[in-house]
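Hi R.,

Here's the input for the iron/sulfur cluster complex you asked about:
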Amino acid sequence: MGKQLLLENINVQGISTLEVYRANGGYKALEKALKMQQSEVVDEVKKSGLRGRGGAGFPTGMKWGFIAKPEGVPRHLVCNADESEPGTFKDRFLMQNKPHMLIEGMILSSYALGANVSYIYIRGELLYVYHILEKAIQEAYDAGLLGKNILGSGFDLELYVQCGAGAYICGEETALIESLEGKRGNPRIKPPFPAVSGVWGRPTVVNNVETIAATVPIILMGGDEYAKIGIGKSTGTKLISACGHLAKPGVYEIEMGLSTEEFIYSENYCGGIKNGKKLKAVVAGGSSVPILPAELFLKTAKGEPRLMSYESLADGGFATGTMLGSGGFIVLDETASIVKNLWNFTRFYHHESCGQCSPCREGTGWMEKVLHRILEGHGKQSDVDLLFDIQSKIDGKTICPLGEAASWPVASAIRHFRAEFEEYVNHPEKIKDVKHYYNMRNLQPTA
Ligand SMILES: Cc1cc2nc3c(=O)[nH]c(=O)nc-3n(C[C@H](O)[C@H](O)[C@H](O)COP(=O)(O)O)c2cc1C
Ligand code: SF4
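And here is the predicted structure with iron/sulfur cluster in place:
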């Protein structure tokens, strides 16, 4: 096992309480940060090379450096705890078990950004985590870690948790901001970016839960030390939520640079494929990223071992590579149907599209219909090309990246598993279990 910077002490009984968290070194990073200049805290984060863990991997220190500082205008830090990406459940795990780590990260990051009012926006379905956070925040207020003059430093912070109603699109940062302001969660056109005009039109930084939690070990150990962990521009550790046909699904903390093979097969991590089956494909970064067949997931097209890093997973571009994304690993064994899996994803994106852009609103529904008719045994010879064509008309032509999130899985599934689609079209008599699949979810096939 590699270093456990985030999941350390996760199994200590009572670690979700302030008392036990503090007894295990909690809030030491905050004490240290509050004795530093705000700009020094930002510099440590810059030196660490930390990249946003919400999906895009944008350098956090650089993002913090972009925040506008107009005279007399308040700034805000917003923690994105929406986590609705299929296959991703790492933030929930961290918040549920170590809520004070997120709160500590929020306080020191707000200090670095000069924000005196900050928010955690949490997905509606995670109501029980909302209550855990509320309890932990109250403990922090009672101990003088939130509110006025935190630990005698002169720094004030009010921290609020806002519960969404449960929409995937509210994880997109500008939709999140709209929702936080009490409006329908429709993404905004950028620019202006939140760093200039975010919550209430004020300069705002939006960061993922894991990103904010990672500032705690960064301040404790120093940015340079943190940057020594990992590989190349993928520094530090990363939480991976691994699900699907695995012997040991779960949330793991890996050091960046671990090989994908070790992650899947080692007993320290996923323990191999369930029931000794063969690995067929992996969706490595949450449902939005391109799917890779086993051979390209384990080795790059150049034959080099594939590593768990932003660069290695992207090696080969979209032709033979993918993305680390949010670290939501969905693992499929040899019995899995790529077409059914894709229909499931596409149905999700159609349902979650906010409807502002025609290519996304119409295209996701159209792709769902075509996939559905293929699965029902009524596929046409031209359907595979039609699907590819529809996704290409969404990619890059929408207000927010949900359009791409819907199109990339379709493009990559066809690119790597075209023969499977053609088999469904040419031999509908071989299609099994589709009705059963609908029934399991109490769904009615659409016409
Ligand atoms: C449709 C959609 C859903 C998203 N959902 C999340 C989410 O649940 N959590 C998250 O941190 N980022 C999500 N993002 C990315 C955010 O827009 C934003 O980039 C991120 O919160 C920035 O934080 P980071 O720099 O710490 O990664 C989503 C993006 C899109 C387009
Ligand atoms: S791409 Fe889809 S989700 Fe994003 S703004 Fe357009 S319609 Fe809404």
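One thing worth noting: The chain has a mean pLDDT of 95.

Cheers,
M.
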